[in-house]
Amino acid sequence: MKFDPILKKLTIFLLVIQFPLLLWLSLDASISGDEFLHSNHANDVVDYFFTLGTNQDALNTPVTNLKYYGQSYDNLASLIGRITKTENIFLLRHLMSAFAGWLIFLFVVLFTSKTDGWRTSFFSILILSLSPVIVGHSINNLKDIPFALGYMSGLFFIYLWIKEWPRPKIKTSILLTIAIAFSISIRPPGLILILFLGIAVFLLLVKEITSKNISSIYNIENPLVQSILITLTGYFAGLVFWPFAIQNPIVNPISAHILMENYPVTIRQLFIGELIWSDMLPWYYLPYMFVITSPVIIIPGLISLIVFARLLIKKPAFLILIFSAVFPLVYIILKDANVYGGTRQVLFVYPPLAIISGYGLTLLFNWLQGLQKKIYLILFTAFLLTLMVHPVIYMAKNHPFHYQYYNQLVGGYKNAFGKFEADYYFNTIHPAAQWLNNQIIENGKDSVKVISNFETKWHFRNNPLIASVKTSSFYNRNMYDWDYAVFSATYLNPITLTTRLWPPPGTIHTIKIDNKPVAVVIKRTSYDDFKGNKALKKGELLNAINLLSKSVNKDPFIEGAWLDYGRALYKIGNFSQAIEKLDSSLSVYPYFEPALLYKARCYNAIGETSESIHTIDFLLKHNPKYLPAYLCKSEILISDNKPNEAIYVLQQALIIQPSFSQAREKLKRLSEKNNFSQ
User: Fold this and answer.
1) Exposure of 33 in the CB half-sphere (CA atoms within 13 A)
2) Nearest CA to 668 among 655, 658, 628, 651?
3) Which of 76, 454, 507, 543 could cysteine-pair with 503, CB 3.0–4.6 Å?
């Protein structure tokens, strides 16, 4: 036990130092992927309440679906910003995020010190402090970090409530109610804490009944009555700052929760070198991402826990942690839920996992100590210090891009680049856009047009030299009139990222993580690709061909210019040359959907039906949600006198996207014509 006073001091030191550290780190944190959306919606929520419900914008979110989020912490940030007239709302948001992140550390220490002592507290907070994903999200994520805080605090107060059974203190019940309300006010899945409390009450009541020691349920201090009061008060208090929920406090929160379980927005994710739609990711996506993005120091603790589990199996705190960490993941896997962004959406299970690993390291430490050989403890300490090196060096070198961490199991970030998402929350866009803004001011040239594959208007808000800021995917950059482009490697095909095409020609600045270019600033050297696209849209085909020929001669790595070149030739009936130009587009980006689509049309036009079908099948194999390909394939099959096969293709399209009206109308006409039942 001689180590405990030292470990207690180290734990308190780590906890205390994390507070100013997280605040300091948040000062230059990037604007994260969802922040503009959530900040804007928070303003709408504040307007809703300031106008006593007259302003209904917070209830009208057909595109973002944000009315289904409580996002109370975002709303609070906007309310504070409105009252204090804060100009840089994102700085305020990031400071508040850092505070919420630190409170997670606090509750981890409170939980472990109450349940297992300071050894477990030390190992748990050490693991959290060495977790770049947690640290990174703590400085700019007002959605997932506050929810993780509500979840962790809820678990702590549920534990205290159980421990105080059969006479839980009123103070504990009030704090548990606040934790439940806070969690629900962030996200509908906060309801899970009510489920956990209900399970705990049920088991405790069964225990009391079987021991013939149940007290009267009519006593207000009775835990059954308290649990009902906690549930009802926590539930309704969680809806107070949520406009959609208060329209119908019973139905709407439940419908929001159901929507969260079947979220309609799907995103292509780079996973093990493949771009896969988020609702088509393998079941092991989340466990895999936890393994490769957590610091390796968490693994020995989890392994030790399995070995020594018999020592903890009867401890309520341990069972609460296991259930709270494992149940949500198993539920998500069994539900085949739509998840993306690595572990971001389930960050709330990470603090319990860190504590579980802390338990394991404590058991291992105790066992080694029991062997009474100092060398074993020295080797144990050296082993942990070795595992600490990788995440510490990464965070020191790559601030503020902590959350993009990949551990040694995949060779670190450098080796993960091009195999997994490089920056799924677009954090590198922020410094790239800031750099460009400063350069434009320095150059003094006005009427500058900027595009980006992420929202960047805010970064240029005070620059009078900017004429326009638009969003465009990297692969469609030829379709826009721009002078400078800011692009992130996010959502790009690994073919693009792992060849000589990245950074692209014209790059004048890069933002790097572990020496990998994750965001780039490009200066346009020719406008012929844009002019050619414009001419093509106007039907000026010969002019388009002339401009696009010039464009690809100047820069042969613009896949969109080659595509437009091929499309123009297709429209004048020069199918062979069109295929040649489309192949040039595909040599730059082999899975470029519109190039494959037009190549299939060209083959069909020259009577090579099998090649046409083969090309479309190749396209759909790599992107089964590219809906125009289904229409194209059905047309090819119809022209080949295969209506039944065409009908099947259209049915497949509607399985992928039930609201695909073109496919539905075409299927109806085709089925009626061929007397085929849908």
Assistant:
1) 16
2) 651
3) 507
pLDDT at position 218, please? 45
In one-letter notation, the amino acid at residue 377 is L
Compute the distance between CA of residue 158 and CA of residue 324 in angstroms, rounded to an integer: 11
Q: Across residues 91-116, what is the average pLDDT?
A: 97
φ, ψ (nearest 5 deg) of residue 461: -60, -30
**Predicted pLDDT of residue 456:** 92
- Helix axis angle, 609-622 to 593-605, nearest 10°: 170
Give the HSE-up count for residue 605: Cα atoms under 13 Å, Cβ half-sphere.
17
> Is residue 663 within 8 Å of 627, Cβ to Cβ?
yes
Q: To which residue do tokens 């300031």 refer? A: 50
* Residue 37, phi then psi, degrees to nearest 5: -60, -50
Spatial contact of 452 and 487, defined as CB atoms under 8 Å apart: yes
Residue 107 is encoded by which pair of tokens?
């509750």
Percent helix, strand, coil in the chain (nearest 5)?
65, 5, 30
The amino acid that residue 403 corresponds to is Y
Question: What does residue 626 show for φ and ψ, rounded to 5 degrees?
Answer: -85, 90
Dist CA 21 CA 525 (whole Å): 43
Q: Which amino acid is at 289?
A: M
Can you read off the two tokens belonging to residue 81? Answer: 């910003």
Report the SS3 class of residue 489.
coil
Owner of token pair 């429209």: 571
553, HSE (Cβ side, Cα atoms, 13 Å): 7
Average per-residue pLDDT for the chain? 93
What is the pLDDT at residue 136? 97
Is 206 buried (19+), middle (13-18) or exposed (0-12) by CB count in 10 A? exposed
Q: Confirm if 612 and 645 have CB atoms less than 8 A apart.
A: no
Q: What is the torsion angle, in degrees rounded to the nearest 10, for the CA atoms of residue 489, residue 261, residue 154 and residue 424?
A: 0
**Is residue 254 exposed (0-12), middle (13-18) or buried (19+ Cβ within 10 Å)?**
middle
Instruction: List, in order, residues 6 or more apart from 347 with CB less than 8 Å away.
Output: 133, 134, 137, 144, 145, 147, 148
Confidence band, pLDDT 50/70/90 cuts, at residue 212: low
What would the two tokens of residue 464 be? 């009078």
Are 355 and 321 within 8 A, CB to CB?
A: yes
Residue 451 β-bridge partners? 470, 485
As a whole number of angstroms, the distance between CA 155 and CA 124 comes to: 15
User: CA distances (Å), 306 to each of 116, 322, 352, 359, 361, in order?
Assistant: 17, 12, 16, 11, 11
Counting other chains too, the contacts that 204-212 makes at CB distance below 8 Å and 24 or more residues apart are 204/162, 204/165, 204/166, 208/166
Percent of the chain with pLDDT over 90: 85
Residue 50: count of CB within 10 angstroms of its CB: 12
What tokens were used for 477?
Answer: 């950059």
> What does the chain come to in residues?
678
What is the strand order of the sheet 516-523 is part of?
A: 466-471, 448-452, 484-488, 516-523, 507-513
- Angle 30-33-39 from CA coordinates, rounded to 5°: 85
